[in-house]
Amino acid sequence: MELMKHSGFVAIIGRPNVGKSTFLNRIIGQKIAIMSDKAQTTRNKIQGIYTTTDSQVVFIDTPGIHKPQSQLGDYMVQAALSTLNDVDAVLFMVNATQKRGRGDNFIIERLKKVNQPIFLVINKIDQVQPNDLLPFVEDFRQALDFREIYPISALEGINCEELLGAVTNLLPAGPQYYPADQITDHPERFIVAELVREQVLKLTRQEVPHSVAVVTEKIQRQDQQKVLVQATIVVERSSQKGILIGRGGKMLKQIGTQARKQIELLLGDKVFLELWVKVQKDWRDRKVDLQSLGYQP
Ligand code: GDP
Ligand code: K
Ligand code: MG
């Protein structure tokens, strides 16, 4: 096997909504992790693989660390924390517009037991005055010994290349873990389901987004660059099914139209998308359901 100048695994952790998935997608240059302004958008670990001629960095996007309120929440926090033990470096991401709080301190306590280099990544600097950054940095610097500190904007791309370069240079020589053209560890059908769930997150409110899971039933390539995609949206209660379908099917149609555009970008072909909605009572608190929906420990 060919040895690369730099290769390894880098975890991105932080509270919900600080911009972890946005950063990952920016680095990879394609949407492999869905994003939204809702906490707990990301439920699984997602690897984003960045390969150049002499290096390979495998970024691991994680669910935001929060106080779990269901079996699903438990799974998500465990998924995030467990990555800390087997990576070469950690990016601890915080939001420049939010002071250090209990959620950050909880993570910092866990990070104290990590021996690998830890970068403090201060995201969303497009939203703050430069003068406010210095006290912000000072406050975090006192809390933990960071290898480096990078203020960035994942949304606008500020300082992201620089951060990528610094992390890459830190990694030791090692194997190329994935083929050069592979950008994520998840199969196409996982991302397709996530792209449908992203639209549900965007278009619904309150408890509905958190009660939804999506399963891809079929991806079938047909003639003339057309792909048939079938997916089921799983909810916890029949009232939620009603909301998702909407009056005269209007909501489901809107979800379908938006999701189809995203799936077309992913697959590079015209897509014909069929969606169903199914009730699976309280799936978020049932171990068997969690496993069958892809949230397994
Ligand atoms: P995650 O939960 O940490 O993965 O966060 P997401 O990537 O889902 O982003 C949460 C929200 O923050 C979304 O609405 C993003 O558009 C927004 N966001 C992410 N990065 C930035 C940034 O650099 N600047 C601003 N202004 N918003 C951002
Ligand atoms: K989010
Ligand atoms: Mg995320």
TrEMBL record:
For whether the record's keyword set contains Glycosyltransferase, the answer is: no
Cytoplasm keyword on record: yes
Q: What does the entry list as the binding residues for GTP?
A: 14-21, 61-65, 123-126
Q: Where found in the cell?
A: Cytoplasm; Cell membrane
Which segments cross the bilayer? none
Q: Where is the region G4?
A: 123-126
Q: Where do the record's region annotations for G3 lie?
A: 61-64
- Region called G2, residue ranges: 40-44
What superkingdom heads the lineage? Bacteria
Q: Where is the Era-type G domain?
A: 6-173
G1: annotated span: 14-21
Q: Where is this region: G5?
A: 152-154
Q: Indicate how the chain sits in the lipid bilayer.
A: Peripheral membrane protein
One GO cellular-component annotation of the UniProt record comes to: plasma membrane
* Cross-referenced PANTHER family: GTPASE ERA (PTHR42698), GTPASE ERA, MITOCHONDRIAL (PTHR42698:SF1)
UniProt function note: An essential GTPase that binds both GDP and GTP, with rapid nucleotide exchange. Plays a role in 16S rRNA processing and 30S ribosomal subunit biogenesis and possibly also in cell cycle regulation and energy metabolism.
Q: Which family does it belong to?
A: Belongs to the TRAFAC class TrmE-Era-EngA-EngB-Septin-like GTPase superfamily. Era GTPase family.
Q: Which NCBIfam families does the record associate with it?
A: era (TIGR00436), PRK00089.1 (NF000908), small_GTP (TIGR00231)
Q: What is this protein called?
A: GTPase Era
Q: Which organism is this protein's natural source?
A: Liquorilactobacillus vini DSM 20605
The gene from which this protein is expressed is era
